[in-house]
């Protein structure tokens, strides 16, 4: 896909680089040249430009773009102005970053429905992870369901998946297992790397240090997490 990301600060710059790494075509836009210099060799294309200038924005390949992301964080006025300009130019899809409730209200009034709050979303995700003992990471699917990454409890070490029967006891599905494997890099330094096993069969044996990726109801996840108490 083709993306235009406006604002090459910490959030916008990182997003641009990640999307590029994933094989997408990304144009990074910012009016501060130093920010462009930091990403220009790591994304598809970068341009120093004032995104509140409608004449300049019209020179971007808007018709070929699948999505415009307004990632401006520190200048609310510039964020609103650039969002309005892209909206007036009828781009296919706009995702805008909101700094506060008032900012979000203004963006919605412009007609943008896809609004993100990176800082709040990150903090919310971390708070939920910290709240659940032993959880390495989590992804909230709804108010009732969650996906978590957790170390295999001691009671299951050495068991086959069919013997552990976590699905029957806790109504949780094992989506996959992640193994932490020691690798030696080019400098001779040993590091741990994650290896995803893939689809887990009933015969897979759970080893100490395995990370389980589990899906299910939050209340059942909580019961599972209390196993080693």
Automatic annotation (TrEMBL):
Entry's Gene Ontology BP terms: potassium ion transport
Matches recorded under InterPro entries: NAD(P)-bd_dom_sf (IPR036291), RCK_C (IPR006037), RCK_C_sf (IPR036721), RCK_N (IPR003148), Trk_Ktr_HKT_K-transport (IPR050721)
Stored Pfam families: TrkA_N (PF02254)
Domain RCK C-terminal: 149-229
One GO molecular-function entry: monoatomic cation transmembrane transporter activity
Residue ranges of every copy of the RCK N-terminal domain listed in the record: 1-116
Protein name: Potassium uptake protein KtrA
């Amino acid at each position: 896909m083709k993306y235009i990301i406006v604002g090459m600060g910490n959030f916008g710059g990182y997003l641009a680089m990640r999307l590029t790494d994933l094989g997408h075509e990304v144009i990074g836009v910012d009016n501060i040249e130093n920010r462009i210099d930091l990403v220009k060799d790591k994304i598809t294309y970068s341009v120093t430009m004032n995104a509140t200038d409608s004449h300049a924005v019209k020179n971007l390949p808007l018709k070929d773009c699948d999505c415009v992301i307004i990632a401006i964080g520190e200048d609310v006025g510039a964020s609103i102005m650039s969002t309005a300009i892209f909206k007036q130019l009828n781009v296919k899809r706009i995702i805008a970053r909101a700094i506060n409730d008032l900012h979000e209200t203004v963006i919605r009034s412009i007609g943008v429905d896809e609004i993100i709050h990176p800082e709040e979303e990150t903090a919310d995700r971390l708070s939920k992870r910290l709240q659940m003992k032993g959880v390495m990471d989590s992804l909230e699917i709804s108010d009732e369901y969650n996906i978590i990454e957790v170390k295999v409890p001691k009671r299951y070490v050495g068991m086959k998946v069919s013997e552990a029967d976590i699905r029957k006891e806790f109504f949780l599905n094992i989506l996959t297992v992640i193994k932490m494997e020691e690798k030696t890099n080019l400098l001779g330094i040993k590091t741990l790397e994650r290896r995803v096993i893939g689809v887990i069969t009933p015969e897979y044996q759970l080893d100490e240090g395995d990370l389980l990726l589990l899906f299910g109801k939050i209340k059942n996840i909580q019961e599972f997490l209390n196993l080693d108490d």
